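Sorry, can you check?
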Amino acid sequence: MKTKQTGFTLIELMITVAIIGILSSVGYPSYIQHIQKAKRSEAEAALVSMATAMEQWRVENNNDYTGVTASTVFATQVPIDGSGTKTYTLDITSTTLTSTSYTLTATPVAPQDSDSCGILTLDSTGVKGANGIAPDTAGCWE
């Protein structure tokens, strides 16, 4: 009398592993891009909030930006509450700081592979840029 065997064969198991591998190789890059975009959006929001703080400084200091530092008006990192891993460093570009204008930067802490935006900028006139290019490169400030 023959006994019926139950379970998976090695071929069935290998096919399942191959399908999981293919799905992972397609899904993982999309996941990484989504995470990068979320971090970039958080940095963009921080730059806009920092610009608001700069305008508040100007109002309180006789319409003059001179003497302001990033740490005196706003957080110097993203996330701005200091929780979690630091993803961007916020700063005021000293070469563009005058009594009437400024340029804010958000510099990625770790190299973000396949992210062409790099350093995000926002100046006192509201011009947004990426990697020092103004206006922003396509898709960086969405």
